[in-house]
Amino acid sequence: MTARKKTTSGTDTDARIFPADAVSNAAPQSADNYGALRQPYTGADTLSALPESVLVEIEEAIFCPPDGLLLLGWKLAAPDTRFYLRSGASTTRLEFTDGNRIPRQDVLDHLGAHADPSELMCGFMLFAEKAITLGEPCYLEVQVKGGHAGYKPIKLSRRRGLDAMRRALRQLNASASPKNSFFEHGLAQAFARLNPRARNVTVAPRELSYGQARGKSDVTIVLPASDDLDALEYQAAFLDQTLAGVAAELLYIGCQANWPQAEALFKSLREKFSLPFRVIRTGEMLGAAAEKNIAIDAAYTKYLCFADAGTFALAGKWLQPLIDRLKRDGNTVLVAPTLLSGDSSGQHLRFLSSGGGLGQSVLPAHCLAVNRSLLAGLGNFDEAYVSGAFDAADLLERAKAAGMRGGVEAASRVCVIDRATRGSPGAAAGLNEGLKLYDADLFGRRWGEQTKESSSARRPGGGRP
Amino acid sequence: MKKNPRAATSSSKRSIVIASHGHPRLSKGGAENAAYNLFSQLASGEDFAPVFLGCAREPRGALQPAFSQPYGDTEYVYSLSGFDWFKLANRDPEFPAALAQLVARHKPDIFHFHHYLNFGVEVFSLLKKLAPNTKLVVTLHEYLAICHHYGQMVTRNGLAPCHESSDMRCSMCFADRSRADFYLRKQYITGFFQNVDRFIAPSRFLAERYTAWGIDSRRISVIENVLKPAPKGAIKADPAKGKLKLGFFGQISALKGINVLLDAADILEKSGVDDVLIEIHGDYSGQPPEFQADFLERLKSAPRNVAFKGSYEPEQAHFLMSQMHALVVPSIWWENSPIVIQEAFQCGVPVLCSDIGGMAEKVQEQKSGFHFKAGNSAALAALIKEINGNRTQLTLISRTMADSATTTNSIRSHAEFYQSL
Asked: Which residue of B has its CA nearest to A316?
């Protein structure tokens, strides 16, 4: 076989991060020199020319700036087959045992009689660090016994930020062996690079105003401008009913996928309910903590109250006790209401979390009132968290470390209602759970020792398990 | 908007807006007819200056105003734009401003809704903010707040009668909705219902269902719908002569029990009863295509004792009913207060009806008609056979039937109710 130098137009341009002047066809300088049996990469998929069967599919190759790559796919190959990820001068040996192994019955089904049932776990998710050379094409090199090598070009996914994270979580096999350190060392690294704020994405939020904020608003209620228009309408209605006479402004923030539809709803909410509000469109999904911080910058009030899309004001007065608590105690940075769950089987409410006073070590983040200036002193919410589930708990730990306080106010109650439908068995919920797991892992690594100590200290007999 | 009609009315008249989810010139439902009858009869009296606000169900055009007045100074038509059928929310951003204009113009003492559909339940809080002193009245029609299945309270699968709603039961009917959805739906609707001063239920049965659902019974008054007066001089058919003529009137649908009636006709034919004729008057064009095909197929193979007469105009109802010896109302859903029963009473025509809900309440056994087990065609056939064998029963009932829902009584009840607000 004669090596043929290809021009730029003959290469897989999608595989490049930046246009290259020419495709590198130099033999990689790896320790494994296959000499004459190893042909240069030309941009073509040559795996079928190998003397033994190697089936590998890269279904998603997610670029994790500045040089990482998260690979999702499946492979069926002899155990001693070697896989290398190459991009320009970068060469990374892929060790699939370090990755997340994923059952792929669909692959076996597709192969039919050729499939070996013992290869069910042929799916993988793998993170390769320092794997990408900007401007160079990216491809897989597969080496089989006998010194033969084949290539497979890799097309980089267009996904980025939270969209890419969700894609990975959709595939993640959470029940993989706990000995597998992929979650901590692979996925966490990939996600840290994908987190939009971590990669310093600059957004130019667009703000829209619906009605004039009341003269001296005490508090800004920050809500996600979610794509769930029903949730938005429910929340607005219940706030309208429970905040009559309260000087509050609403601030919606988020990335609306269907803005025309959302805009029509916002117009309607403004016309039929009394509370004035503003909407900040971020243009990109930034993660809950990042959105909260943008809202803090946009608010005019001394106090803010953050609520997620599943929180509903159904239990009478709820905001004032939170604000009163913050006003009374100038050292309290954050207060959460008691959470009730809509136990709809009996159409009554039951406690989800009880009012434990101030000083709780783990704080649910569904709803949270904060003292803005104290929060600023702590550096606001940590944007490494993306799901919104652990940024409050993290904040509380930082507050305690700084000698400040926070906790739950028993006199304030809101309802937390999960609206996942039976018709769509938790696809979206599953993704959010994945993001929460990621945040939980981050929180655990950061605060695990402190939270263990504080719960031991509270236990009768102090410190004993 | 045109000139202010209030200027021409006496200041002693109370201003009232009668609002309905339809307009009888645009749709022919019982509720909009009842609302319009109330409006017309209040207008002809001395005590009220009524305005009618009805809805057009076709979506509004881009340049079309939300409210228009194609039928005169005292009638408005609201053209919809954006409605959430699940939680009965109106997402039309132009509706609140149009409503505010109407309120500013007419300064209603009373705003009386017939149904909350199309306006959206938020209209009640809007009105309380616009005009805190205006009394809000809602006449309830069917069970839409309670039941997402067109307010019929029958299961989607099998059309079985449903006795109460719960988010668990409702989410069983609607797999694409969770219990939480139904929980929030109820919270949403009841939250806005708090703004309503009083409810009217045309039947005790309906009132009880809404009470069981959560509306305080002290807030609900039972008052019958207002009908048009029956034309005088219609000659009633004599049950003693010729074939026994039974009539089905109204919408032809599965829930209205048309299949029960056709099955009963089959049974009668097969059992050799040849002196009964069942006339079907009504419209099926608004029904799902599968039902229409099935109905037409059934008509083709229907026994000789069935005659399909097609649709009729409301003005013809009394004349046509007077030709019948009895009406059959075989609905397999609860009904509320079917207009056809009230119209039959006006004509002095006895009614054979299912033994459930508003039908059983309105038709008194042996006094204004007979009951049969709902959904049971054999029971209906047996009842018809028995009545056919003893037609004097019908003659006696027909002669002595109390006109328990006369137009005069009902309009007077409404007037007294308004005075009590």
From this structure: B191
